[in-house]
Structures are given as C-alpha cells and as structure tokens.
Amino acid sequence: MTQIATTIDQGKYLLKCGVVKENADMHWQFIRNISEPGRAWHDPVLIPARMPGVEYPNMKSFPAWSLSALIALLPKKYGPSISFSISLNEWIVEFDFLKLHNERLNHRECDSNIMMALIKMVRWCYSNSICNGKG
C-alpha cells in the first residue's frame, strides 16, 4: 500500500518534536458514530486540510503531513543540499549545508519507509534548532 501522508502515530511523533499542526496539509477525520451503539467514532479518513476556523460538531480531526509537506519542513537557509536515494530497499535522506562561520553540517537518516526517513530527519533538524515551520 502506498502511504500518501503520515499516520496518526507519526503525526503524534512530529507534534512531540515541535512541528506545529498548522503546517499539516492533510488531516485524519473522525466522524461521530450515531448508528452503532458502543462505538463512538468511525475509522478515520484521510482528507486534504480543511479551511481554517471551520468547526464541525460531529467530527474531530488529527493533522497529517504529505511527503511534500514533510520536505517543506526541512531547512532552506544557508543553501542546504538535501538528497534522497534508495539502496538495498532502504531510503536515505542526506542533509548537508554550510552553517554560519563556514561550519559544515552533514546528517543522514535511513529507513525502509521514505516517510519515516523524512520524519527522522525533521526530528533531527528540530532537535538541532535548524528547521522550518517551528511554532
């Protein structure tokens, strides 16, 4: 199955890392179940992010990030080089840029799932205070 956005668990992880939900371009929508007693919510459905400020009383949602939204979270200042490659069924995300005072910074994250490799890179960038989209 193709993964087009972060799962709910991956989204929780990103929020814990400091990513703000306003940067999400999709969301998991839960609709209140009124037809089946004992089951409060239907299974979530992934949909594009809804209009800001619009509330639906019978729904709740959780933010999700597409692959392009995750890439947009990566830093762009100081002219970084971000590359993606695959080797032996493992995605590699490499990040290389020149910091202030000509200090070079290089980091690599790997995972069999490209979304997880990117999530790990976003986490590393946030933990080193060099990421876009901080709240």
Gist?
The protein is α+β, with helices and mostly antiparallel strands and 135 residues long. Helix content is 23%, strand content 30%. The protein has 2 domains: 8-64, no CATH class; 67-127.
Overview features:
135 residues; alpha+beta; three-stranded antiparallel beta sheet; 3 helices
Explained architecture:
This protein is of the alpha+beta class and 135 residues long. It has 2 domains: 8-64, no CATH class; 67-127. Helices cover 23% and strands 30% of the residues. The protein is built from 3 helices and 6 strands, in the order H-E-E-E-H-E-E-E-H. It has helices spanning 8-17, 67-73, 114-127, and strands at residues 26-31, 45-48, 59-64, 81-87, 90-98, 104-111. The protein has a 3-stranded antiparallel beta sheet with strand order 2-1-3, with helices on one face. A hairpin with a 5-residue loop joins strand 5 and strand 6. Helix 1 (8-17) packs parallel to helix 3 (114-127). The longest helix is centred in the C-terminal third of the chain and has 14 residues, at 114-127.
